[in-house]
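User: I'll paste a sequence; please echo it back and then give the predicted structure.

Assistant: Echoing your sequence first, then the prediction.
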Amino acid sequence: MKIKIKDELKFSYILISPMVVLFILLGLIPIIYSIFISLLKWRINIPLPPKFIGLKNYFEAFNDIIFISSLFKTIYFVVIIVLGSIGLGLLFSILLNHKQIKAKMIFLAFSLIPWAIPRVSGGLMWKWIYDGNYGILNAILKQLNIIDSYKWWFMGSEWSALFLCAIVEIWRTSPFVGLMFYAGLQKIPEELYEAASIDGANNWQKFKFITIPQLNLIILAVSILVTTWALKTFDTVYVLTGGGPGYNTMITYMYVFHQAFKYLNIGYGSALAYIIVLIIIMTTTLYYKILIKNK
């Protein structure tokens, strides 16, 4: 029996070994190497050898006015996306979970179209929607007499421009979030709501004391996913504004791109990328403490 167990263990190790090798070659080694690069002063466009400077790139980041500004803009951008995606996704799932809604699977399939559209294609579509000359947003608002003339939406304040970019991300992620919540709602026993009704609970009390606690783990998972996606958003903002006008919509991930691939400051760009990783880890820990540990 012991020999059989040992043989099974050896066989299981053989099965997972290709994946482990791939992870080491394509995941672990590049991560370690990029961390090492973040400790170097290395600009590819300057014919000088890389110089080890330790944590200087990280300290320099917090003296970089553009980087600090991009962090505040990213926080604003992420908060709008997370609140909007979770709020709309939850509303969508509750409406879809209603017994009177027919052909739910067809409705679900069509609702995921924004999620299925390639990000650059979706960004280009919304760029035309926001266009100051021919955009449908201007046309609709003018027909409703909300505006007097067509507007260039991204030429306003940096916060309004970022808000418009965030709307595109909410449009993309909220159907997926709604699908996650809908799956969670399907697993809540109907008896809980029936018992609450007998005790005299209204719809808000059912939602607060039954629905939300039952969806706690899904809310945690969705919050982490959407926050991570929002922090790493690049293509949407790049297609819509390119980070401009000026630095108005220069969120942190775009600033990393500029430093690493436009200015070829590889060491500094790597350090900025790992600062984002640290922010994601801290945010995930915060979500866990709020939603799980204090449950």
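The chain has one domain: 59-293. The first strand starts at residue 40 and ends at 41.
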